[in-house]
Write a structure and sequence with these properties.
The chain contains 14 helices and eleven strands. It has 442 residues and is of the alpha+beta class.
Amino acid sequence: MKITRNNVDALNAVLTLEVAKADYAPKVEEVLKKYLKTASVPGFRKGAVPMGLIRKQYGKAVLLEEVNKVIQENLNRYLQQEKIDILGNPLPVVKDEFNWDAEDFSFDFELGLTPEFTVNLGVVKNVTQYTIIADDKMLEEQVVRIRKQYGKMIAKDTIAEGDDISGTFTHTEKGIDSPAKLTLDLFKDKKTAAQFIGKKVGDVVTVNTKGLFADDHQLMDYLKVSHDDVHGLAIDVDFTIEEVTTSELAELNQEFFDKLFGAGAVSSVAEVKAKIKEDAEKQFATQADQKFLNDVTSSLIENTKFELPATFLKKWIQTVGETPLTVEQAEAEYARSENGLRYQLIEGKIMSDNKLQITFEDLKSYTAELIKKQMAQFGQLNPSDSEVEGIVARVLSNQEEVKRLSDQVMSEKMLNLFKTEIKAKTKEVNYDDFIKASYGEM
């Protein structure tokens, strides 16, 4: 088979595959001979059907299938041998008139080529590495929350200050039907909280979402509305009261401390707060790292300039799914996915330039650490090496898990590279201020 490449421009090419009879005929004959032995045709014994009849009945379908196989095999081999980096898959050029009765055929395929570009981490500006601290206010709140959690729950019929209230927020037009558990100090306005005092199970309280909470983003948690909807949202929502409870706080004594952290591990409120602070700040560090990674990613997408074969990609998007898309649908899908594609290319370039690779030992080590953390959450603080290794082996036998964990390992490697190479501002904040910064309000 002869393959010719015609570069339309730096991002588009056309491959012409010339398929001669010798490329497909032997395989077509081989398949037809198998049909000859097995075909059931009325009036003929199995194996005694004339080849002319077999060729007439099955020849065209076999020809199409075998020519397609030859095309795919040679096309893939050519792309690998020539080391052609493409986006999407080759798209066949549809010809109005095609003569399948000919002996030799010619097929054209459009290619979308991966752009050539450089990545300069120095373009990343105005990003911040946050250190999130658990401040005294948070620690006090956490101690109270834990005391309530381990305290004695008492069911009530009527709401008073400090009670836990369970119910459901609803708003038909907005499709809100969100179960929630709250306390009255959650509301920003004391007048809103006062509406609940004295209400009973089964009562409905109507509140307006504008200024309902100190931070509008809490509407996302309690009403399950999107981030795009929360700003300026001003609608009346109904809250149906379903349960009212109060807590008799657990006493701050050694029995309580042992229940939380194990016998003798902690012996004072100060030590309890120190433990809470340590655990919380470990979790905060993960959130801060994710924000830093997201901010760097956004900056790289914005500041790393290169063209994409957009016209080709939109045509490819039309064909790639189970159901073909219209031109308009493909345009919309391309708009949604363009930044993701750009970062995939940027990430690949960074990995190549910095020789970032994932070894099997990296994957095993990372998975083992995850498993140990998960086991610790269930009280298994000192699992044996053989126990952990057995779980690791089972996890890594699942290809989907291997892909997911590999992505996480590479993300960690990228994060470490960015922390080393990018000059970022550093800032220490409490958790509330970090949340505001995360949504661009700081």
